[in-house]
Amino acid sequence: MQPRVSSLEEGKDATIKPQGRVLPLNLIKFLLLFMALGLVFSVISMYTTRYLGTQNTLPSVHSGYLPCFKESNNFQRWIRPPSNLMHSMTDEELFWRASFVPQLKKYPFKRVPKVAFMFLTKGPLPLSPLWDKFLEGHEGLYSIYIHSLPSYHADSPPTSVFYRRQIPSKVSEWGKMSMCDAERRLLANALLDISNEWFVLVSESCIPLFNFSIIYKYLFRSRYSFVGAFDDPGPHGRGRYNPNMVPEVNVTNWRKGAQWFEVNRKIAVSIVEDTKYYPKFNDFCRPACYVDEHYFPTMLTIEAPQLIANRTITWVDWSRGGPHPGTFGKADITEAFINRILEDNTCLYNNQPTSICFLFARKFAPSALEPLLEIAPKVLGYG
Ligand SMILES: *[C@@H]1O[C@H](CO)[C@@H](O)[C@H](O)[C@H]1NC(C)=O
Ligand SMILES: *[C@@H]1O[C@H](CO)[C@@H](O)[C@H](O)[C@H]1NC(C)=O
Ligand SMILES: *[C@@H]1O[C@H](CO)[C@@H](O)[C@H](O)[C@H]1NC(C)=O
User: Fold this and answer.
1) 3-state secondary structure of 373
2) Most buried by CB count within 10 Å: which residue of 3, 44, 143, 151?
3) 206 falls in which pLDDT band (50, 70, 90)?
4) Is the pLDDT of residue 48 over 60?
5) What does the pLDDT look like over 337-379, one tens digit per residue?
6) Is the torsion defined by CA of 33, 35, 38, 39 positive or negative?
7) Which three-class secondary structure state does DSSP give residue 233?
8) In angstroms, how far is the first alpha carbon of the chain from the final one?
9) What is the Rg, in whole angstroms, of the alpha carbon atoms belonging to the chain?
10) Which of 133, 138, 211 to mutate to test the pocket of ligand 1 (most atoms within 8 A of CB)?
11) Which of 214, 342, 356, 379 to mutate to test the pocket of ligand 1 (most atoms within 8 A of CB)?
12) Which GO CC annotations does the UniProt entry carry (predicted)?
């Protein structure tokens, strides 16, 4: 650009200068010669360009690769979700790819936002028939991702919504960084589908407490992402903080919360792209600091406090005491029991009090499936 601009300006000066002046004859002769040479050069260059230009277009005109070329440049390739969830990307490659965010906020196509249900499991999904009922009729509004132990071979039938929804997985252990790695892997894979807008982390023992439309609206109308985060001054809260985490993490920012979250796309990206807090938690939050209870709540309290509700919407029963929450089996499941979960709650939703505080509940044993399927149409609103 620069040379062309300056030569144009020089030319402009040259035409302005001679006006009103008598030029010496030698200079006129020199200018004429210069113009003649310029003409010859421009004619030569015109022909050269035309000849070379023709040559350049020849291969593509006769190329058999034209349809292929067209296909790979199609707009669809940017908005179509991956057809096969299995891939050979490393976590580093996957997280990099998943962190892409468009800068133009208006989508140039009709984007129907979806909920990504991300199952963090050991293997089988014993409650999948209940989820099938919950999702029935809402195709196009959700997607499924499953992270299980790599040794587990899924056997969902092709008719199931869980068929071939496994993502490349690694061994993950409760309370260790490998658990957060698995959660980030689920988020990253789900982010590859540009239509996923909410990201719901569930386990094989979770159930939905309402029908799909209610859950979809509750999430999409929420101003905040649901991440449990509270400041526990005791030994199981601040007691697990390690002062080596400064300056990135101060004890005043230290938070605790259950790992089961429901986050929007913006928060999902900030979890996947984090390189600032990860090393600190990886080095200084090891058992008896259970990193999956502290990493995301603390990081988001520092990075995005105005975007999280600080509460979970996954119900769990701690009333029995001990380090593990209550698990419910066949004998526990009655209408009255489910109604007890749904009632007697108050919490804030978009800063207003509401009685709907939980959309999901855990933990349910495989034996709970049969009675749950039976009472679901009446008390859960699906099936
Ligand atoms: C979901 O439940 C609500 C309230 O019970 C009801 O009004 C709505 O029709 C239900 N939606 C579907 C798709 O069943
Ligand atoms: C932690 O405290 C230090 C000094 O008080 C401050 O410079 C730093 O910004 C704080 N970090 C966070 C994440 O609040
Ligand atoms: C969540 O907690 C943070 C401080 O930790 C606060 O700034 C934020 O307003 C809280 N979110 C809501 C919705 O109250």
Assistant:
1) helix
2) 143
3) very high
4) no
5) 999 999 978 999 999 999 999 999 999 999 999 999 999 999 9
6) negative
7) coil
8) 67
9) 31
10) 211
11) 214
12) membrane
**pLDDT, tens only, 276-295:** 999 999 999 999 999 999 99
DSSP annotation string for 35-104? HHHHHHHHHHHHHHHHHHHHHHHHHHHT-TTHHHHHHHT-THHHHSPPS-S-----HHHHHHHHT---S-
Q: Which of 27-31, 46-50, 258-262 has the highest mean pLDDT?
A: 258-262
Please give the distance, rounded to the nearest whole angstrom, from the Cα atom of residue 302 to the centre of ligand 2. Answer: 10
Q: List pLDDT tens digits, range 167-205.
A: 999 999 999 999 999 999 999 999 999 999 999 999 999
266 membership: H or E segment, kind and range:
helix 265-272
pTM, full prediction = 0.82
State residue 344's pLDDT score. 75
Which residues have C-beta atoms less than 6 Å from ligand 2?
246-248, 250, 253, 302
More confident residue, 339 or 155: 339
Token pair listed for 245 = 């985490």
* Residue pointed to by tokens 């040559």: 55
Instruction: Give the whole-angstrom CA distance, residue 190 versus residue 186.
Output: 6
Look at strands 196-203 and 142-147 and give their pairing: unpaired
DSSP states along 296-357:
HHHHHHHH-GGGB-SS--EE---TT-SSS---B-GGG--HHHHHHHHSS--EEETTEEES--
Question: What tokens were used for 288?
Answer: 């008896």
Structure tokens at 192: 């590859």
- Cα–Cα distance, 98 to 273 (Å, whole number): 8
Domain coordinates of the chain in residue numbers?
Answer: 82-102+110-380
